[in-house]
């Protein structure tokens, strides 16, 4: 690290838009570049919309370039997600990165942090024997790479990854919930900084449309942990009419489309897939729904919806309650309770005044708590 460098290194598994992690990296890089920093991405794999993703960085290098760069080239090295212990080991030999922990992958081989039977959320600290065995209890579709690869990943690689990441000198998390997860897994609290995400608020000044039929938006990666089946179940229980948009792509998208049809929701639920600007749909929506099954580290799409005055109905999981205050800027319901979620949505559809009040509060709270200036102030403390 040198005092005259203004280049920030981002180290990540993927170069492409997979989910919230990669979207966060792109937005942070854009913000830093606007402030006069240069940004460099070091990645392992190319992913969805690779060309669009790397445009957010001044330079993009694959891992073959690892040996040609050194820590002194950068003002700060940030590590966002690495899935392979052999790669992480090589990185840690050359760098002392600040690790941004966005999910549970370093402490849960499965990553979802819930039990395979019943999908009840797990609060255990990492244990190689227990967690590896738990992560091997999966449907047959997860055996595509073979049983040997699965056992190697869960019993050997996961333990190595856990032990390696604990040696990092500094960690950044998005919520107090994630800080407690790290401390429960043996990370010293003094090494952990909470740094909330930021929003640009470009759309916050736009006028929300008046809809004849209530519009509901749900944005998230289309995987089981994001709760799409629970969302569809809640929609099927609504007593009031609504137009529903599901935004995002993922490995289970086609399964969820089929499930929607089987539930008789094909004419009510529109799966939009990947969209470049989900904020457009949050602005048009009367209600945003956040139905996550897993323990959300934060839940960025929730505050994105709130920034344009859209109240959120969400399950009370993970760090969600740190930005959603029940009855203030949205409605918080017990996790996996689809009847309670449906009732909350129906309440907001029926009560325009409540919807407007919650939406106005939501926008005000988000504008105060998540400006770019506050994020930059905290980020500069890492340098």
Question: How is this structure best described in words?
Answer:
The chain has a 7-stranded parallel sheet, sandwiched between helices. Helix content is 36%, strand content 17%. It has 13 helices and 13 strands. The protein is of the alpha/beta class. The radius of gyration is 21 Å and the shape is globular. The N and C termini lie close together (9 Å).
Task: For the structure shown, list the relevant keywords.
383 residues, alpha/beta, seven-stranded parallel sheet, six-stranded parallel sheet, 13 strands, 17% strand
Concise description?
By secondary structure, the chain is α/β, with parallel strands linked by helices. It has 13 helices and 13 strands.
- Biggest sheet layout: 7 strands, parallel
Helix content: 25-40%
Low-confidence stretches: none
Please report the total strand number as a whole number: 13
Give the amount of beta strand, in percent.
15-25%
Instruction: Give the structural class.
Output: alpha/beta
The helix/strand series, from N terminus to C terminus, equals EHEHEEHEHHEHEEHEHEHEHEEHHH
- Major β-sheet strand ordering: 3-2-1-4-5-6-7
- The geometry reads as globular
Helix count, DSSP H or I runs of 4 or more residues: 13
Instruction: For the record, give the distance between the C-alpha atoms at the N and C termini, rounded to a whole number.
Output: 9 Å
The overall pLDDT, averaged over residues, is 94
What does the radius of gyration come to? 21 Å
């Amino acid at each position: 690290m040198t005092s005259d460098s203004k280049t920030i290194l981002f180290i990540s598994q993927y170069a492409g838009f997979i989910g919230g992690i990669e979207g966060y990296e792109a937005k942070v890089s854009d913000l830093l570049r606007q402030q006069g920093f240069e940004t460099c991405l070091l990645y392992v794999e190319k992913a969805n919309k690779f060309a669009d993703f790397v445009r957010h960085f001044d330079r993009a290098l694959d891992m073959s370039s690892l040996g040609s760069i050194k820590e002194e080239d950068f003002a700060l090295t940030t590590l966002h997600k690495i899935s392979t212990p052999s790669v992480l080991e090589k990185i840690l030999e050359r760098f002392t990165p600040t690790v941004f922990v966005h999910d549970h992958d370093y402490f849960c081989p499965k990553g979802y942090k819930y039990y395979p039977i019943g999908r009840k959320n797990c609060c255990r600290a990492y244990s190689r024997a227990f967690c590896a065995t738990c992560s091997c209890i999966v449907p047959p579709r997860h055996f595509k790479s073979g049983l040997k690869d699965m056992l190697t990943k869960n019993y050997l690689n996961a333990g190595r990854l856990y032990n390696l990441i604990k040696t990092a000198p500094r960690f950044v998390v998005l919520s107090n919930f994630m800080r407690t997860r790290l401390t429960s897994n043996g990370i010293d609290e003094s090494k952990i900084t909470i740094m909330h995400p930021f929003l640009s608020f470009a759309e916050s000044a736009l006028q929300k449309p008046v809809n004849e039929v209530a519009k509901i938006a749900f944005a998230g990666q289309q995987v089981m942990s994001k709760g799409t089946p629970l969302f569809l179940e809640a929609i099927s229980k609504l007593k009031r009419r609504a137009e529903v948009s599901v935004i995002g792509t993922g490995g289970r998208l086609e399964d969820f489309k089929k499930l929607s049809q089987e539930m008789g929701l094909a004419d009510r639920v529109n799966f939009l897939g990947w969209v470049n600007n989900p904020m457009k749909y949050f602005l048009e929506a009367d209600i945003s729904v956040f139905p996550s099954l897993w323990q959300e580290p934060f839940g960025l799409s929730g505050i994105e919806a709130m920034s344009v005055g859209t109240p959120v109905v969400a399950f009370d999981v993970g760090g969600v309650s740190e930005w959603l205050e029940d009855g203030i800027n949205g409605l918080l319901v017990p996790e996996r309770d689809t009847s309670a979620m449906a009732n909350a949505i129906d309440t907001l559809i029926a009560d325009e005044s409540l919807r407007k009040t919650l939406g106005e509060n939501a926008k005000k709270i988000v504008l105060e708590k998540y400006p770019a200036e506050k994020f930059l102030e905290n980020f500069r403390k890492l340098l």
